[in-house]
Amino acid sequence: MQTLRLKPLLTENNVYQLCFLLLTMAFAFSLVIPAYPKKTFYLVGYLTLFFLLAQGIKRKFVLDKSALIVAIPILLLGLVRVIWSRIYADAYFNDVVDNYFQGGKLFIISAFVSYFFIAWRHCLSEKILRISVCLLIFGLLLTLGAAFYEHAQTQQRIRLLTDSAGTVSYLITALALTALFIVNKVIVRRLNQILLFTAIFVVNMLLMFLTESRAAVLVLPVLYLLCFYLVHRWAGKYSLVILVLLIAGGLFLMPSSIMHRLDNIQNEIDSYQKNNDTSIGARFSIWKSGYHSVSWSLLGQSPDDRTDKARAYIKANERANPEAYKNVMYHLHDDLLETLSLQGIAGAVTLVIFYVGLIMVAIRRRALDVALLPVSIFIFGLTDTVWIQSSSVFILMASIIMSYALIQRKPITSK
């Protein structure tokens, strides 16, 4: 009798919705609660693997082209990183190797979770989406509260549970954009859509001000303008003009510390030839030394070899830039260059295929707003290393998985 009662509970709809809610909770509180969100992500991964195995045994496995295009590059990306980390497990800079090993495992788990969430997205109910958007918005507000508290205590750029202010800026943006995508899916009244769009943008921008990330402050308004244009074109050009004016007003009111950092960009670029010991100057030195350190082989090189080559170049050609010399042992402040310098051609190719696949699926399914998520991650990756920390991999993959579960079942074709 107990078995008979349990069977109706273990339907694909119930399993899917349970996993979606668990992932939502993990994602929503990932920047304010340590450890447990990532453990929840692993739990979702194990439930997914058992479900996919059971569906295969029962010959009820769902084949979905869009899910494959998203999942296969994620799987390849994870496999390359795990294999590379095992080849160079004895490297002196073993913390770098371990970061990629942990991240690689999360990519592999994410490949199966992404396939499940996209291929079985017909199981996603409006009720679950409404609960999810409430959780994400609450998580965003909780993150804002934690950020204000941290800033009040330290008077420094916020980092929350991450390793840097730059890192937390793009993770916050992923959280905000995912909440926005679900809002657009479940909120029917257009006025409410606009109000929630504005509220999410304001919260996201306030958090960017607290990170003082120059890249985020400059990129974020453009992302939201594009999102508004793609989703709310019905509102007309006058609404877009008003939004532009509001964004311009918000930027005018930004804290003086951010204005000072923005003003310094041009000064630091102009003074690079004479004084490269600046934030921008160090990045130029890191990028140049990183490129000259690349080993053009299938699986690249160890972090030890990369660091030695990069530091030799910095000493010889970059006036021994102290900040660059110190930081090249960690990462190269550019995602593609970082991946190419360590995981070689295989790593770089899989990363490119990963981005192309995500953008292609979103465009093919006419989910143009969702396409902004991988585009934004790619843009942030031009000036930072996005995929090195396992916590970043977990949060960004949760964002991608949930966002791509919203795409249409069939592509819209023009008549």
UniProtKB/TrEMBL annotation:
Regions crossing the membrane: 15-34, 40-57, 66-84, 104-121, 128-148, 168-187, 194-210, 216-231, 238-258, 340-360, 367-383, 389-407
Subcellular location: Membrane
Membrane topology summary: Multi-pass membrane protein
Organism superkingdom: Bacteria
Signal peptide: none
Domain O-antigen ligase-related: 200-351
Listed GO MF terms: ligase activity
UniProt-recorded name of the protein: O-antigen ligase
